[in-house]
């Protein structure tokens, strides 16, 4: 492999994609590549997202721009769109290597072919084997204080709107030993925040072939480590750090897991629990495998056990066949739960999914109106939640400076906090825990002063 070549990675989408890009960066640097800007790089890797049409559309603008500014650049496309035949037909001649991320070990051979301006991606199906254990690769972390630690990859839920099971395959999980070793190394290096991530963290099990559900009563006798037990083990690692996780599926949110989050000191009281809709019929057509009543029951249990919890969610508006009355059920859900944040998406048909067979019968303007109605409720409930922080003291992890030059951090409950007394700070606080008294609050942010 020729050394002293350069690379640049563009990441679109979720935390898992960001984590994948960190491993790709490490892999390339082990081959002798050096990181560079996108305009000057010999190789540009695009980690793609296909969950929404808007995310997919980004690559159709990015790739021609890259080729125009640097005609000799080699482009690798990985992520959710790497296996989509319709995407290959549209931009196939502009992409040099199509690389499903779990086949990362093939990249060395593909790059060697590309050195002679010839990239033969057909070797995917012949000479080189697939390695599903790419998560064993040591990543090049983008942060020196906050790290994504993937605990698994893939999804077995097959929600009718979602491409992830097709793009990433079935669920496969890392051993608890391997995860704990990665966390211990990070904590020893001084990392303050560990984020355990997977498509569905709370379906984690140490042996993917043993159990289907983390609630299985036989879990203990079969010596399976479920997500609750994994969290307990990470919590017991010595060090000054806190633990986040994403994303949870409501069907797998057990009483045991709620109790673990509530009772362990290092686990943040922020739970992202995607509802997707507030109507049972819509949930059924989405294949979500829970009801509105079950979801609200979980919310009650969580709030009863953790009164200080921050709750966030994902919602799809305008799912095929969603009536105005059914949407109103989602709006009522927002009023009842009082979310701190919600990621609201207008439904877009995704190739390969079951919902593609449904008629996309909600007009774009109506989807937009529904999104705006939910945002109006969200701003009000989030502002009300944030006002409760005023006058109280919180531990904050500082993670950046904003455009005004003020430090910005996050509470345990993932609230953004701007530090408004920087004149009293004589050092760089990024990556440090500080104590802050909250003095101001708006709908999606807080402001306060460092008190020690």
UniProtKB/TrEMBL annotation:
The keyword S-adenosyl-L-methionine applies. One of its GO terms (molecular function) is metal ion binding. The keyword RNA-binding does not apply. InterPro entries: Elp3/MiaA/NifB-like_rSAM, Methylthiotransferase, Methylthiotransferase_CS, Methylthiotransferase_N, Methylthiotransferase_N_sf, MiaB_methiolase, rSAM, rSAM_horseshoe. It comes from the Bacteria. Residues 141-385 form the Radical SAM core domain. GO terms for cellular component: cytosol. Residues 387-452 form the TRAM domain. Its EC number is 2.8.4.3. Residues 5-116 form the MTTase N-terminal domain. Its cofactor is [4Fe-4S] cluster. Keywords: 4Fe-4S, Iron, Iron-sulfur, Metal-binding, S-adenosyl-L-methionine, Transferase. Catalyzes the methylthiolation of N6-(dimethylallyl)adenosine (i(6)A), leading to the formation of 2-methylthio-N6-(dimethylallyl)adenosine (ms(2)i(6)A) at position 37 in tRNAs that read codons beginning with uridine. This is tRNA-2-methylthio-N(6)-dimethylallyladenosine synthase. It comes from Candidatus Falkowbacteria bacterium RIFOXYD2_FULL_34_120.
